[in-house]
Amino acid sequence: MSTFRLAHWYHNSGMSGSRESLSKLVNEVLQSKDFNVHELDKQSMEKLDRSLDMMDRREGRGSEGDVPQGMSWDGWKEEGVRIQVPTGVKATSRPRGEDASRTFEVNGLHRRQLVDVVRSTFESQAAADFHYHPFTTHWDVPDWIPTADPPASNNDSPDTCRIHDELYTSDTWIEEQARIDQLSDIPDDLPRAIAGMMFWSDATHLTQFGSAKMWPLYLYFGNQSKLVRSKPTARASHHVAYIPSLPDDFQDFVRTLNKGKSGSADLLQHCKRELFHAVWRLMLDSEFLHAYRHGIVIRCGDGITRRIFPRIFTYSADYPEKVLIATIRNLGNCPCPLCLVHRDDIHLLGTAEDQRSRSEHPRVDDEDRRRRVTLAREILYKQGYAPGNEHSERFLKGDSSVATENAFSVQLAHDFEFNYFVMLVVDLLHEFELGVWKAVFIHLVRILYTFGQTTVDRFNERFRKIGNFGRATIRSFAFMNVTDMKNWAARTYEDCLQCCFACLEGLLPEPENSAVLRFIYILCLWHGLAKCRQHTDVSLKLLKAVTERLGDELRAFEAYTSTFDTYETPKEVASRDRRVAGNAHKGKAASRGHSDGSGRHRKRFSLRTVKVHLLGHYAPTIRRFGTTDSYSTQVGELEHRTVKRFYRRTNKHDYVKQTTLLHRRQERIQKITENVRKLGVEVGKQIRVIDRSESIPLPPTQPALPYQIAETSKHWIHLGRLVRENPDEPADRNFISDLKNHLLGRIRNRPFDGEETNFTPQEHDDLVIKNNVIHQHAYLRINYTTYDVRRDQDIINPRVPSRAFIMVPAAAGDHPYWYARVLGIYDIWVSPSRQDPSPVKLHFLWVRWLGDDPSHVGDFESAWLHRVGYVRFGGESGAFGFLDPSVVIRGCHLIPAFRFGLTKDLLPPSDFYDDREAGDFVNYYVNQFVDRDMLMRYIGCGVGHLGMVDATYARMAITQILNITSSSKTKETLVEIVSLPEGRRQLAGDEEILLESESEDCLSDSDEAVVSDNGSEMDLDDGDGDAASLCEYEY
Fold first, then answer.
1. What per-residue confidence (pLDDT) applies to 421?
2. Residue 215's pLDDT is what?
3. Quick one: pLDDT at residue 537?
4. Three-state SS for 190?
5. SS3 at position 429
6. At 716, is the secondary structure helix, strand, or coil?
7. From 515's CA, which of 356, 551, 733, 967 has a CA 20 to 30 Å away?
8. Which backbone phi and psi does 567 adopt, to 5 degrees?
9. CA dihedral over 345, 349, 355, 361, signed as positive or negative
10. What SS3 class is residue 164?
11. Residue among 897, 884, 888, 892 nearest 858 (CA)
12. Could you give the angle at the alpha carbon of 692 between the alpha carbons of 687 and 693, nearest 5°?
């Protein structure tokens, strides 16, 4: 009955709990030795909640009441926020003595004191693993890598370069620590350390339908490693405030001031800024400012008493929130929150003029800026002008400032020389993945629609044929149309970028086809470098060079895509119709645009977006604060799940206050849990703390082993039966003799060179295979060291083609790796000779080899992916073979070169075709951008890859990237496009397509795309040396 009652509760309680949560309930609660059901009663949880709530109440400012030992106050408080609303009534029109503003109070601010949060966090057990002293890490640069810059100081060696990763190893932290160490007015000699404060804020909807929303402010501490801090399960996020929005009745208040007229958009935006910075003035209170100057004495989680100095380092937010924080105009003349670039110069990304503008004109919170803001506010609040008037704009418009006093400037600038603009770090999630790349991809889809629905469908079909890879590294596109982009998250756009090259090839006319593919290659390269979890001075120099090339490619893309007559996609039309209907319901006029007669508006790709400009700030920001994953807004977006989970547990009435109660109770329970663990009682799962005890169990796979295969297998294959039952299978020909050659080479320690020694029949006969059987396994796990010196693992599954490809070191050739598809994973018991009856167990892989396409060049200089193809069966080089699993570097992601179609010419009819009916793909592209570790293996400057890369190839790759800005192909493409006849473009072959703008008889949605005689896609020569070749590939 116990199991039945538990199952009945689980399936009928209406909860959304997972099986994992049910298992935790059973294992961690019901089956605990100290769990006593008789201690529970109907009011036990209510009593517990009241007790937890009482812990957080103070009798007085300095009293801690009934706080248990080992706990500190970090509780919530609710208060109103007062702002001054300009009336817009000038002095001549209002009674004497009446101000030009009115006070409006916004209720519902829930916040915690920052000093309490700092004290509570650093006293907790999690702080035992905090970093209190900054340091730098350096890499002994291999001979083939040029050092990025001269040594920064006499202590630096010219043979080393700086490593950039964590915030506590950054230049900013080191500089701030030096200032703290030089303070002379501190009354004690306690160790001094920094509490590195990293803020995130972003409004979020709590439900998919409805108007419930919250505006959380999260705090993380840079003292904690980003590898722990970035995980939601680590609970490293501290909710310090839930910011209120202007209430719905605010317009009612404005109408009482404005003779019944509602407030303008400028007034509403101004009041929103005033509210936000009023909240921050309350957050940066006198207690925090005292701690900022004099520090806080705290006995930290590691048992050492220190004087902790809070310091604000980063503030992560999307662009609309950044302009709110920076108190600048949204999309104004100077839209960048980091520098004073003019919006007309945004398109100059990567040019010398752009770089000079960034370095010579950064945003600075100086006296001149504050003076101009003060003058503009006097015009609003004393002279009675409304926000947005031309008089105040004279002081503000030059640098897109606004008439709001910045809270960070007011509280921190004068005494601490804090330039708040610097804390606004870059945001890869919104600026690139959901910004630049999303805009590029949408425009590519628009271009595909100009060639008809069939071309769009082929594009979707190609993506559906791309399999998944890794542990959710690339997720399957099998059940979606990528052109619809339905409910896509940022990671889906990232996956699309990494796979787009092969899917788009051949669908556009030349020369745009080659130009767009080079552009996508540069986008992938820039994204891979910008998202690295560890950088060196060398890789930052590469990122800077690629950024310059990216700027050229973006300007070229805008130019040559303007020759296409592009209109809104069906999804954009539907979205606009919904937006127009919503605006009509609100009484707003609909915007007009050039239409094609069917309701679609014409669209052009534009570089006039600040997100393009912000790409140039990535390299300096990484050098200053560490890598982008440390302060990505993705961390804050993931923390929104916690807020939404709290919301689901409320009664939906006054849910913000209830959320603070739930958060407080969770924090209190966690602190009690830490104290209980100190008594030796095991409670739940330990979080946020690294277990350094000697009893910590080793992982299932020994880290020193290069691979893992199951110890036993139930599936065995008799070698004689294998050959007899498959007489027509080409892959099984010479299977036994080739296997014996491989096993004999392994036993005699023959080094791997891609070839097998042909041993004599007598030597074959002397080799004894136990029972003449091999045992088959389902998976192979490859252990490898990543570029940032961490352990990782690839899982090879022969039953899933996309997860069956591997890479091994090349023994010859210009390319550093060879590639193969794993057909089977086996172990075998074998004796070297009949005189030695004791068998040994060997693992081996049965593979089908791929070789380089001799007619194609893919490298960083050409901005083209490396292309391979299956080795022809029956050639001098064997199409099938065997491998020692220990020589496998890792799994790789190969994408079919869809343009060249399928063929049966490489292999007679076989069960190992890519497609049982159509045969094998003629070519594959090596996806070197599938993850950052893979990219660094082709560049050759990964710290963890030392001794694992080919020095000659790495030297060439780095040189090509450093010189990537000097490529003239982009300019040549533009010249070629200009010289083409109006309205005509040449397809990837020698056929021509008539564009829709040339004639009424244009391609319709039902028109078929051009295919070759044998039905494969675009397998004709484009004159660029990239023709599909069925010749024998070499490896």
1. 97
2. 96
3. 94
4. coil
5. helix
6. strand
7. 356
8. -130, 175
9. positive
10. strand
11. 897
12. 110
User: What radius of gyration, in Å, describes the C-alpha atoms of the chain?
Assistant: 33
Give the model's pLDDT for residue 949: 82
- H-run or E-run covering 280: helix 265-283
CA atoms of 93 and 668, how far apart (whole Å): 56
CB-CB contact of 574 with 451 (8 Å): no
How distant, in Å, are the alpha carbons of 155, 623, 935, 939, 982 from that of 538? 19, 11, 15, 11, 45
Question: What is the DSSP secondary-structure string of 296-323?
Answer: EEEE-TTS-EEEEEEEEEEEE--HHHHH
State whether residue 10 is helix, strand or coil.
helix
Give strand ranges (E) for 651-721.
707-708, 715-718
Provide the Cα torsion 88, 93, 95, 101; round to 10°.
Answer: 10
Cβ proximity of 540 and 622 under 8 Å: yes
The SS3 of residue 416 is: helix
End-to-end CA distance of the chain: 65
The count of C-alpha atoms lying within 13 angstroms of the C-alpha of 317, restricted to the half-sphere facing its C-beta, is 25
Q: How far is CA 453 from CA 445, 603, 946, in A?
A: 11, 18, 49
What six digits make up the tokens of 380? 């609003």
What residue type is assigned to position 614 of the chain?
L
Q: Which pLDDT does position 966 carry in this prediction?
A: 64
Residue with tokens 């986008």: 523
831-877 tens-digit pLDDT: 987 777 788 999 999 999 999 999 999 999 999 999 999 999 987 77
In this structure, are residues 50 and 657 in contact, taking their beta carbons and an 8 Å threshold? no
The residue type of 87 is: T
Q: Which of 614, 639, 517 is nearest to 1018 (CA)?
A: 517
* Residue ranges for the chain with pLDDT beneath 70: 13-17, 42-43, 55-74, 91-98, 146-158, 585-598, 684-703, 966-968, 978, 980-1035
Q: How many CA atoms lie within 13 A of 336 on its CB side?
A: 30
Residue 960 token pair: 């090509």
Residues 6 or more apart from 331 whose CB is under 8 A from it?
Answer: 343, 610
Tens digits of residue pLDDT in 587-646: 666 566 665 556 788 999 999 899 999 999 999 999 999 999 999 999 999 999 999 999
Q: Are 147 and 122 in contact (CB under 8 A)?
A: no
Q: What is the pLDDT of residue 967?
A: 62
Pair 392, 380: CB distance under 8 Å: yes
Task: Quote the Cα angle for 641-647-652, to 5°.
Answer: 155
Structure tokens belonging to residue 542: 């590469």
> DSSP code of 176?
H
What lies within 8 Å, CB to CB, of 594 at 6+ separation is 601, 602
| Contact between 144 and 955 (Cβ < 8 Å) | yes
The CA-based diameter of the chain, rounded to the nearest angstrom, is 116
Q: Are 549 and 616 in contact (CB under 8 A)?
A: no
Report the DSSP pairing between strands 305-316 and 192-201.
Answer: parallel
What's the confidence (pLDDT) of residue 92? 65
Question: Can you read off the two tokens belonging to residue 703?
Answer: 């880290």
3-state secondary structure 641-661: HHHHHHHHCCCCCCHHHHHHH
Instruction: Output the CA–CA distances (angstroms, integers) from residue 317 to 30, 222, 424, 955, 980, in the order listed.
Output: 42, 17, 8, 38, 45
Q: SS3 string of 441-494?
A: HHHHHHHHHCCCHHHHHHHHHHHHCCCCECCCCECCCCCCCCCCCCCCCHHHHH
C-alpha–C-alpha distance, residues 368 and 373, integer Å: 9
Alpha-carbon distances, residue 312 vs 174, 198, 316, 408, 424 (angstroms): 14, 6, 12, 10, 11
Q: 197 with 222: CB under 8 angstroms? A: yes
